[in-house]
Each structure stands twice: as structure tokens, then as C-alpha cells.
Amino acid sequence: MSYSVEENFLISRSIKPTPNRVLVVRELLRATHPISLGDLEELLGYTMDKASIFRVLELLSEKEVTHVIEDGSRSLKYELCHSEGHHDASDQHPHFYCERCGTVYCLDDVTIPAIPLPAGYQVKSTNFMFKGICPKCSEGIS
Amino acid sequence: MSYSVEENFLISRSIKPTPNRVLVVRELLRATHPISLGDLEELLGYTMDKASIFRVLELLSEKEVTHVIEDGSRSLKYELCHSEGHHDASDQHPHFYCERCGTVYCLDDVTIPAIPLPAGYQVKSTNFMFKGICPKCSEGIS
DNA sequence: GTTTATGCAAATTCTTTGCAATACT
DNA sequence: AGTATTGCAAAGAATTTGCATAAAC
Question: Could you read off the pLDDT of A34-52 as tens digits, one per residue?
């Protein structure tokens, strides 16, 4: 008996793969953009209660498996970290929020140079957001 | 008859200085950190309705006189732009959100190097946030 | 049998709007 | 008079919690 991709994903991060967690992780793995709790409800066909989705996302964030993205819309968006298990420099790619279509793009290829802060600030995480119009909306395609 | 600092501030930005606007701007000018609508209510001794505060903040944001800061707390925070009238590079200083005391620091002295994005992204504004523990909380002073 | 996970309902919190009353020009 | 501003009340929207049931171990 073998595990599914989602189960492996969870087990490798020391999280018990319950049915709801598997479903949520499946959507997060599929997603090409950060998605909100409401997006997940919709993607799952409103078969899972939002409190349950909330608790899965809460757990994934606690375990540092997801990033939480604030993009200026009212709702938080989530995406899986690229690194395994912990936030690190490779996760600190910036995001781009399209003010027209609302999509959040992960600018994976954009590296943020090291930015020295004044003494005393202990940085745990970063959130770099660009806002404007995305390529698709610029072209009028989307 | 001369104008107050707050009135001058508003007039120079083509905003009519009503009593509420003057009071809100006074607090924003005094503030050393970005503050929320709730903070303003408290600072004003709950003499101004939150809907009124909201509309002043809305107007100031429309006129690009304030920045809106998302720091991971549930509430938006506001600060006056440093430049006059328009967002520009000098406003793009990063912020630091202290996860312990909730304070948002403006890292004015920290300059973000120019970060080239892939073709097609039209950047209108940026929001760079560091999160962690601030110097005061690190020392156990605050 | 105890712990963990889930769904339902509702509470919380923050933001935003409708509308009547007031103030300004 | 007519427009703009304000306060009060309530609506909206998203997040979070309490609790009872169901599942897992």
C-alpha cells in the first residue's frame, strides 16, 4: 500500500494525513497562484466546512508549510513554501498583486538582494509585495 | 488669520480642511508608527465616529497622502507619505512588524535596491514588510 | 476509552454603506 | 437652496471559536 502525493507531502512534514488535509494540500499543490480560504471552499465544491479549511490552513502555517500572503484584498492568501519544512531565503521571493484581476503572482525568479536592517531587529519572515497591472491584464487578454 | 499646520498640510494637497480631517491629520502627523482606524478612535478619545475616520482615511488614501500598510494583524494601518502628494521611490521604505508588541516601524533609512521584474509587470506601488521581534522587545524593555 | 478531527452554528473583528441631520457656501 | 460633511446604525465580509458528533488510534 503506497501513499498519495498529498499524503507523502504531509507525512514528510510530520503532519498526519487526514482526509481534509489531503484535499486542501491537493488544491494547494495544484494552484499556480496563492489562494484564499474562500477560493479553497469553491475549489472543493463547498463540500468542506470553512472552519475545517481554516484549521488545516492554520496547521500548515504553524508547521511553516505555507506562506500567508497579504495582497491588499480583504482576504489572506496561502501558498505552499517551496523549501521543505522551514521558511528560508529561498522562500523569500516577492509577489505581485494585480489590481485589475486580483491574481497574486509568485515572482520566483526575482531574487531579493540581502537588505541589512538596523541593529536589533530580528527578522523571522518577510513579505514583499508589488502591486500594479499584470502582463495579461496589460495586454487586455484576461 | 493663519492656518494651522494641519490645515496647511491639507490645503497644500488640495483637500479642504474640515474639522475631522484636521483632527485625523494631527494624529497622523504626531504618530511615529503607522496606526489603525481603531488606534485613531482611541487617540481621539472616541469623540469621532469610526465611519467618519474611515472616510477621512479613504480620502487621504485616494489623494495619495497616506500609505496603507498590511502587517499581518487584522487591521490596516496608515501613515502619511513622506513625499508631497504622490507615491514615489522615496516612499518605498520597508516596514518592520513586531510580532510581540504589534508595532510597525518605518525603516526609513533602509533603502531597497531597484529590483527588476519580468517584462510586462506594471508596478504601481510596493509593500515590503519584515516581521519578527523589534529591538525593544528583544531587550525586554517594552 | 481516549484523543483527534470534523461540521455546524455563531461570535468576533474590522471594514464599509445607507440615511438622516447638520454645517457650510 | 444646494452641496458637502458628519454621526448613528447597521450591513458585509472574513476570520475565529464553542461545542457536539464522528472518526481514528
Answer: 999 999 999 999 999 999 9
